[in-house]
Amino acid sequence: MTARDWVRGVRWYLRELTGEAEYDRYCERRRRHHPKVPLPTRREYDALRTRQREEHPEGRCC
């Protein structure tokens, strides 16, 4: 494993951990299925996700 591979692995892990990769996947899916609809900003996406989680709690205890 080279240093470059290690850095890529760490970058991938941090993006998954912070949710950056999730936003990128969402944007790619939106572009593919709804190409003419404008993409939400990261802030708008975060608000959308928060509202979704609060309205549909999916088995959380609290």
What does this structure look like?
By secondary structure, the chain is mainly α. The protein has helices at 3-18, 20-33, 42-55. The longest helix has 16 residues, at 3-18. The protein is flat, with a radius of gyration of 16 Å.
End-to-end distance, in Å? 43 Å
State the helical fraction: over 70%
Q: Find the structural class using helix and strand composition.
A: mainly alpha
- Uncertain spans: none
Q: Roughly what fraction of the amino acids lie in strands?
A: under 5%
Which term fits the overall shape? flat
- How many H/I helices? 3
User: Rg from C-alpha positions?
Assistant: 16 Å
Query: How many distinct beta strands?
Result: 0
Question: Order of helices and strands, N to C?
Answer: HHH
Mean of pLDDT: 91
Largest sheet, in brief, is: none
